[in-house]
Amino acid sequence: MRHIISILMENEPGALSRVVGLFSQRNFNIETLNVAPTEDPSLSRLTVTTVGDDRVIEQITKHLNKLIDVVKLVDLTEGNHIERELMLVKVKALGAARDEVKRTADIFRAQVVDVTPSLYTVQITGDATKLDAFLNAMAPLGILEVARTGVSGIARGDKVLSL
Amino acid sequence: MELLSGADMIARFLQDEGVEYIYGYPGGAALHIYDALFRQDKVKHILVRHEQAATHAADGFARASGKPGCVLVTSGPGATNAVTGIATAYMDSIPLVVLCGQVMSHLIGDDAFQETDIVGVTRPIVKHSFSIRHPSEIPEVLKKAFYLAATGRPGPVVVDIPKDMTAPTERYEYVYPKKVKMRSYNPVTRGHTGQIKKAVELMLKAKRPVFYTGGGVVTGKASEGLTDLVKQLGFPITTTLMGIGAYPQSDQQCLGWLGMHGSYESNMAMHHADLIIAIGARFDDRVTNNTSKFCPTAKIIHVDVDPSSISKTVRADVPIVGPSSSVINEMISLVQGKSITSPEALTDWWQQIDTWRADREGKLYEPSKPGEVLKPQEVVEALCRVTRGEAYVTTDVGQHQMFAAQYYKFDKPNRLITSGGLGTMGFGFPAAMGIKQNYPDDDVVCVTGEGSFQMMMQELSTCKQYGVGVKIVNLNNASLGMVRQWQDLNYKSRHAHSYMESLPDFHMLIEAYGFTAITVNTIDELEPALERAFADKHELVFLDVKVDPFEHVYPMQVPLGSMRDMLLSKTERT
C-alpha cells in the first residue's frame, strides 16, 4: 500500500543524505520525495511517498525515527489528510490543439502560466491521481516536458506535526 | 576563561572525558591533534600499524569494559582503513568514537590530497556522524559523540575534523560540557509496564519456556538481573553468540548458545518451546535459520532497546521497547512471590531437555589419539582448563571462532570478544591487544587461525613497542577451515582458494619480533605448552598448534530448515 510519511528533521548538512541513504541501504522504496525548510529555520520538513506492506512500513518508520537527525515523523496515510503535488507541464499548442490544451487545463482547474507561439506551460496542483489523469489527457496533444514536485501533505483537522 | 586551539580542545576533552587510551595513526590532516596529544601525558596514544587495528583495539576495549573506545586517524586512506573496524562495531552495537582528520575546509570537494568524504563513506555503518564546522563547536560535538556512542543502542560515531579546525593559532573558549541534550535523541529508559506485566503473565503460564538472550544483555549490563530472573523462574536459557557469558554457562539451566552452530539442545528447545523470552537479541539469520519455519509453536516476548529490532525478521507477540536492565528488574519484582502455574509441565520440559542433552553427550567430536594430529576442539578445551575459564578470549572468524565459542566455558559477560555480526577476519589479535593494555593483570588470549591472523599480524610490532603480553593460540589447519567446510558440504569438496599455500614459518616470524613461539603437534605437547604460555602474564607467546584440517564444525543447521534441522556430524543429521 502507498504511504505518505512526513518528517521533521534537523536542517543540517548531511541530514537529507541520511534519510535517502536509509531507503537504499535497507531496500525500501521511494516514490516521491519533497523537502524544504519550515517556519523554524532549524527544521526541515521532508515528505516521502513509499510503497510497502504493514511490516515494511513499520520498519521504515522505526528506522527513520532511529536517525539522530529525525526529530519527529507522521504517517499521514494513517488518518485523514490533505495531499498535494504541483506539476509544470510544457505541451505543444499549435492549431486546433491550442484550444484543446486550454480547455483541458480549465477542466482540471490548471493554469496556463507561460505562452509561446507553439506551446503552453501549464501549472496544476492536486493529488497524484489528478496529476496522472491530466498527463493522460495531455499525452495525445504532445507533452514536451514535465516537472513534478513530489507529494507534500498535512493532516486534516486539529492534528499538528510540530515539536 | 580558558582559550585553547581546536587541537588542544580535543586533547583536553579526551582527558576530561576520562579516556585513557586512544588508538591511532598520524598523518597530515591529524598532525595538529597529534601535537596536542604529545604536549600532555594523561591520554596515552597507542600507535598501531594499520588503522583497522586501531578500531579493533578500541572496540575490544569497549567490549571488555563497556566504555566507549576511542580512535584517531588521518584523512583519506587513514579514515578508509578504519572503515572495516567501524562496520564491525556497528554490527555488534559497540560504542566507539572515531576522530578522523580531514583536509582543510576550503579544499573539501576539490579532490585534495588525501581527501575522502568519510562521513559519506561511513554513513550506513555509523550510529551518527559529525563534521566540525567551527573550532568552538569541538567540545560540544565531542560530548555528543561520546553520549550517542554509549547510550541507547550503542554504536560507532565518526567525527570528521578539517585540519583548519585544529589550527594552533586560533583559540577559543573551552568549557567541558558535563551534559548534552539533543531534541531528536531520547533513548528509552524503561519499558512499558503494561507490556511487562503481560509478558510476566505469559511467563508464569508457560509450559515449555526458554530464554533467548543476546548481546543487548551484555552491553546493557544486565547479566546479574538476568541470572536472578532465570534462576527464580527455573527456566532454561540459551544465548546468542554475542550473549555468551551473560548467564553462567556452567550452570545447569544454561543450554549453551543457539543458531547455526549452536548446541543441539538449544536449537531443539527453541523449536519445541511454547514461549520464547528474547532479551537484547535480534533474531539474526544465523540464529533463526528459515524464519517461516522458526519455532512454530512459540509465542514470542521480545525486549530490545531498539524498536527497529523488534518484529524485524520475526513478529513479536509481546514487544517491549526498553533497556534490558530496567525491564529485567521490573520482571523480577513482578515474579517475586508468585509461582508458575504448572510446575509439572516445567519438570516434563526439563526431562525432555535432559534427554536431548544426553543424546549428544560425548558425541560432539572425537578426540585425537596419542601421536595423531590434534583436534581444534580439544585445544580450546585445554585452553579453558589452563586459564580456569577466566581469560578474555578474543577470536577471529571461521571454524576456530565457533570452536572457541563452543568449547571454552564462559561464566562471565564481556569475556568472549568476537565479531559476530560482521564476521571480520583480523579482528581478534588487535582486539586482544586493546583489552590487554587496559587489563594488564588478566589473561587475554586470541584464538585464531593462520588465515585470520595473517590479516592483522603487523600488530606484533605494536605489541613489541608497548610490551603487550597477549597470548595467541593459532589453530593452524593450513586452510580456510570454514570456507573449506562449506566447499565440502556444497561444492563436492572442490577447495577453491580455501587452502593457504606458502604459509610463513610462524616460529621464525614471531621470533623476528623478539617474542616466544611454541609449535604444538600432539596432545602430550599441548598442556605443557599452554602452561608455559600463560606462566608470565606480561609476555607475548604465540602457540602454533597444528590441527586436523578435515575437522568440521557441528552441529550445523541445514540451510532453509527450521531450528531443529541440523547436521550433527559428517554422517548424522536430525
Oligomer: heterodimer
What class would the helix/strand composition of chain A place it in? alpha+beta
Count of DSSP strands of chain A: 9
Number of domains of chain B: 3
Radius of gyration of chain A from the CA trace?
Answer: 18 Å
Which parts of chain B are unreliable, with pLDDT below 50 for 5 consecutive residues or more? none
Corresponding CATH architecture of the largest domain in chain A: 2-Layer Sandwich
Number of helices of chain A: 4
CATH topology of the largest domain in chain A: Alpha-Beta Plaits
The number of helices of chain B is 22
Compute the CA-based radius of gyration of chain B: 24 Å
Euclidean distance between termini CA atoms of chain B: 71 Å
**Number of beta-strand segments of chain B:** 22
* CATH C-level label of the largest domain in chain A: Alpha Beta
Residue share in helix of chain B: 25-40%
Proportion of β residues of chain B?
A: 15-25%
Shape verdict of chain B: globular
As residue ranges, the low-confidence spans of chain A are none
Q: Your description of this structure?
A:
Chain B: Keywords: Amino-acid biosynthesis, Branched-chain amino acid biosynthesis, FAD, Flavoprotein, Magnesium, Metal-binding, Thiamine pyrophosphate, Transferase. Chain B: Pathway: Amino-acid biosynthesis; L-isoleucine biosynthesis; L-isoleucine from 2-oxobutanoate: step 1/4; Amino-acid biosynthesis; L-valine biosynthesis; L-valine from pyruvate: step 1/4. Chain B: This is Acetolactate synthase. Chain B: Residues 5-119 form the Thiamine pyrophosphate enzyme N-terminal TPP-binding domain. The complex is a heterodimer of chains A (163) and B (574). Chain A is an alpha+beta fold and 163 residues long. Chain A has four helices and nine strands; from the N terminus they run E-H-E-E-H-E-E-H-E-E-H-E-E. Chain A has helices at residues 15-25, 54-66, 96-107, 128-138, and strands spanning 2-10, 32-37, 43-51, 70-75, 81-92, 111-115, 119-126, 143-148, 152-155. In chain A, the strands form two sheets. In chain A, strands 5, 6, 7, 8 and 9 form a five-stranded antiparallel beta sheet that branches. In chain A, strand 2 and strand 3 form a beta hairpin. Chain A is elongated. Chain B is of the alpha/beta class. Chain B folds into three domains: 3-173, Thiamin diphosphate (ThDP)-binding fold, Pyr/PP domains (Rossmann fold, 3-Layer(aba) Sandwich), CATH 3.40.50.970; 193-360, 3-Layer(aba) Sandwich (Rossmann fold); 376-553, Rossmann fold, CATH 3.40.50. In chain B, helix 1 (6-17) packs parallel to helix 7 (138-150) and helix 15 packs parallel to helix 22 (523-533). The termini of chain B are far apart. The chains are: A alpha+beta (163), B alpha/beta (574). The A-B interface holds A 9-10, 13-14, 17-18, 21, 25, 55, 58-59, 62-63, 65-66, 68-71, 163 and B 119-120, 123-124, 127-129, 131, 148, 182-185, 306-308, 311-312, 315.
